[in-house]
């Protein structure tokens, strides 16, 4: 297997980012190592031309800004999302059934449920505690070893299991965590893990946002390592690719990387793409580095372009009939332009033409995806961001299999393809 530093960084990022909070923290650390300065939304900002800054909201969404030395006239925007479908713990998660401590779960987003059975599951997320001195603090928790499993029912007890049986997430998806007495609970375990990871020996757990995740590490797969298999490729793969392109750019142009939480559940939140986060940040930047006022902001947005990056459905060799015959993107065939006449994707002919030209200049192959006319179509942050800001936008992504599964698959060569295309975009002097 040939050594590829970029793919090694990708696999490490995927492994270390089991939740949106961890992904955002990891992106922030990498930005800081590259010289980006953290901004706080509650404080006054003092920005200067040529600076590199970033800001987070809810600790699960992040915006990084590369400010040009010249007057701010246009922004090259890259968009992605930090969340992935899965199983989240309910607030009162403890269940005692048949001598087992189990956890009540809620399905987050459009998760493909069947692959969750019989997997080694860790637990991660954000926990808020009261310190001994009375301070409230939010901390990240990541129990990386397998502590839970959702066991399948033996086929001997359900002869129809392979005949399309529906899965009930309320009654059939509760993972088993601990065998023991009826007094066993989740809070003592959380306190133990918080002490192990943060030294919080006496802190009181007040609330949490925790998710289960597959502890199997990401891997390169295939005889020639053609594939990458991992949890959360949708859409941490785009977060990583966008960050790589931004950090590897020449730094001369105004550029933005935004990675929103809550895309998988509609983006309607304070830190989601339908919320005010990106608009709030860009207005503050425009006030300081552009001409103050709404007209100046509108002119900046209309001179800018957004590339929304979210993975695309690759042609599946076992289910080729699920694709339009003329629009079946191939794994390792290059970035995919995503088109939908009903605006489920934000691409139009002008923004698609710009991206095709970028790919030509970068020597990158490019593909197009349109869903079958008799099937529904998913969406992305692209149309939402375009609606909220009015910025000309297109949707692109890496082709993948198994979208919304606990383990997804993409092409190892497509990572470099999209990084090169996005780097050409960030470096491009003129957008029109």
Automatic annotation (TrEMBL):
<dbReference type="GO" id="GO:0008270">
    <property type="term" value="F:zinc ion binding"/>
</dbReference>
<keyword id="KW-0482">Metalloprotease</keyword>
<protein>
    <recommendedName>
        <fullName>M18 family aminopeptidase</fullName>
        <ecNumber>3.4.11.-</ecNumber>
    </recommendedName>
</protein>
<dbReference type="GO" id="GO:0006508">
    <property type="term" value="P:proteolysis"/>
</dbReference>
<dbReference type="GO" id="GO:0004177">
    <property type="term" value="F:aminopeptidase activity"/>
</dbReference>
<keyword id="KW-0378">Hydrolase</keyword>
<keyword id="KW-0031">Aminopeptidase</keyword>
<dbReference type="Pfam" id="PF02127">
    <property type="entry name" value="Peptidase_M18"/>
</dbReference>
<dbReference type="GO" id="GO:0005737">
    <property type="term" value="C:cytoplasm"/>
</dbReference>
<keyword id="KW-0479">Metal-binding</keyword>
<keyword id="KW-0862">Zinc</keyword>
<keyword id="KW-0645">Protease</keyword>
<dbReference type="InterPro" id="IPR023358">
    <property type="entry name" value="Peptidase_M18_dom2"/>
</dbReference>
<comment type="similarity">
    <text>Belongs to the peptidase M18 family.</text>
</comment>
<dbReference type="GO" id="GO:0008237">
    <property type="term" value="F:metallopeptidase activity"/>
</dbReference>
<dbReference type="InterPro" id="IPR001948">
    <property type="entry name" value="Peptidase_M18"/>
</dbReference>
């Amino acid at each position: 297997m040939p050594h590829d530093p970029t793919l090694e960084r990708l696999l490490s990022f995927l492994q270390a980012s089991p939740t949106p909070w961890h992904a955002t923290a990891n992106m922030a650390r990498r930005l800081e190592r590259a010289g980006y300065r953290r901004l706080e939304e509650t404080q006054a900002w003092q920005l200067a031309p040529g600076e590199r800054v970033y800001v987070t909201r809810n600790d699960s969404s992040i915006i990084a800004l590369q400010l040009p030395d010249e007057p701010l006239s246009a922004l090259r925007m890259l968009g992605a999302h930090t969340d992935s479908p899965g199983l989240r713990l309910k607030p009162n998660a403890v269940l005692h059934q048949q001598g087992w401590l189990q956890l009540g779960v809620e399905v987050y987003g459009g998760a493909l449920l069947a692959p969750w059975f019989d997997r080694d599951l860790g637990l991660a997320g954000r926990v808020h505690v009261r310190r001994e001195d009375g301070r409230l603090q939010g901390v990240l928790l990541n129990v990386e070893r397998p502590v839970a499993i959702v066991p399948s029912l033996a086929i001997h007890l359900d002869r129809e299991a392979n005949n399309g049986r529906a899965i009930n997430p309320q009654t059939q998806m509760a993972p088993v965590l601990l065998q023991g007495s009826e007094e066993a609970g989740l809070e003592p375990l959380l306190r133990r893990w918080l002490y192990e990871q943060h030294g919080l020996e006496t802190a009181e757990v007040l609330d949490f946002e925790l998710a289960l995740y597959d502890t199997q590490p990401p891997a390169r797969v295939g005889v020639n390592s053609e594939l990458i298999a991992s949890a959360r490729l949708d859409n941490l793969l785009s977060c990583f690719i966008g960050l790589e392109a931004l950090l590897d750019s020449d730094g001369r142009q105004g550029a933005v990387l935004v990675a929103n939480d809550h895309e998988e559940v509609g983006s309607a939140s304070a830190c989601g793409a339908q919320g005010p986060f990106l608009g709030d940040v860009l207005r503050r930047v425009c006030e300081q580095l552009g001409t103050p006022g709404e007209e100046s902001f509108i002119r900046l947005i209309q001179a800018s372009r957004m590339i929304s990056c979210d993975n695309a459905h690759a042609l599946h060799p076992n289910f080729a009939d699920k694709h339009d015959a003329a629009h079946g993107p191939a794994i390792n065939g290059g970035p995919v332009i995503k088109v939908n006449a009903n605006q489920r994707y934000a691409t139009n002919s002008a923004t698609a033409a710009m991206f095709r030209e970028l790919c030509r200049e970068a020597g990158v192959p490019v593909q197009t995806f349109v869903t079958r006319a008799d099937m529904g179509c998913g969406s992305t942050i692209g149309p939402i961001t375009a609606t909220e800001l009015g910025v000309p936008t297109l949707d692109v992504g890496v082709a993948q299999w198994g979208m919304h599964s606990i383990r997804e698959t993409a092409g190892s060569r497509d990572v470099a393809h999209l990084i090169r295309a996005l780097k050409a975009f960030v470096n491009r002097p003129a957008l029109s």
